[in-house]
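Could you join me in thinking about how sequence relates to backbone shape in a protein? We need material for that, and I hope you will provide a protein of your own picking. Label the sequence line and the structure token line clearly, so we can match residues to local backbone shapes. Would you write everything just below, so we can both look at the same thing?
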Amino acid sequence: MRKFGLTLFVLVSTLAFVKAQVKTLDKVAVVVGSSIILQSDIESQYQTQFIAQGNTPNESVKCYIVQQLLTTKLLAQQAVIDSVSVTDNDVDAEVDKRMRSMTQRAGGQDRLEGFLGRSIIQYKDEIRPEIKEQMVAEKMRQKITEKVNVTPYDVKKFYEAIPKDSLPTYNKEVEVGEISITPVLTPDEKAMYKQKAQDLLDRIKKGEDFATLARVYSQDPGSAPDGGDLGFADRSTFVKEFAATAFKLKTGEISPVFETEFGFHFLQVIERRGEQVHVRHILIRPDLTKASLDRAKVKIDSIYHLFQTVKNIDFSAAAGFYSDDKETKFNGGMILNADNVQARTTFIPTDKLDPQIALIVDTLKVGEISKPQIFTSQAGQQTYKILYLRSKTDAHKANLTQDFPRIKDLAYEDKINKTVSAWFERRRKDTYVKIDPQYLGCPQLKTWITPLATAQTK
């Protein structure tokens, strides 16, 4: 399940290079109030946030980085004055979250530590102050804007102020609901797969090599080539049953065969480090039988029959009652736009739909449901679905009638930005800022330079 990330390798390697150059790069690049920004801070962010992402070197990007660091410092200083803080637990949780992501992308803790050239614990201690400052700054920003809201009049005024040739264009969009029925194996149908896993476990207990059998038989494509090795991870990395098994064993112990949503596993604990465990496993995935597919089809057909024979069935209620898909059933069956998950919008551009879904939706009229169809996910899982087209909007220029919620979001964001900009404008006048001559030519920083600081620089 783990895959080595080239991007992370470049990022971490670059970071290591920057750290190694601290002696030659370090100088005070910016003074802002009671804080300083070092040249190495700027170089580090330039390398990790720009160069490591595959961009062509561009020194002007450092101007934006300095501006970002300046705003963070100023917000953090105001947070002290206003007694805005974050708890140590929240900071630790954020640090752990970032480290889990890096560890997963690197393919395990050992690999990540190799790239970093230091232990995870050391690296967490290094980045913790920076992350804490960022969190405090963000919380201060939220306080500055906590009373911002927009009225319908504000939205109308914002919309009318946009030049007609600058209005956003929205592509053709649809709202699609689904009722999904997943084929399920009976205990008897699963038995042969559980026995296959048990047979492999017995062979290991008799002396055969765990890693060799994992390479040959495990059906986890991410770990099988590495002998089933999953590297170090914490509880949150694994599904519930896997984590419960991994964290109750001692180093060297091998578990019995157990079942998760992925199939039948057994695992061995290689090493424990506090709240992290290093394991390897073998996975046997059960194949769906024709009988299991037939049972699912009978169920989906019966649901479809209800829609055909009973008037005024509410699709949302039916999805909540019948559907097996955990992501949509509690959302009235509606599929969320995967490119805008935070907004939890159900409006999906047709070019972003799953091609299998798009093909069927294209034949439906608004308010219609499709006949049951079998769908195959990228992972090869087969599921029967009924689709429902709730709405369809053709490509168009933004207007208040069709797009009020989206224009409201734009108006709100605009008001947020103006509120923050006004706050910074007031704070800049009262804050001493001195910028190294290297960055005095940055257009983004012109308004940050105080007369006194300019005179001293000259």
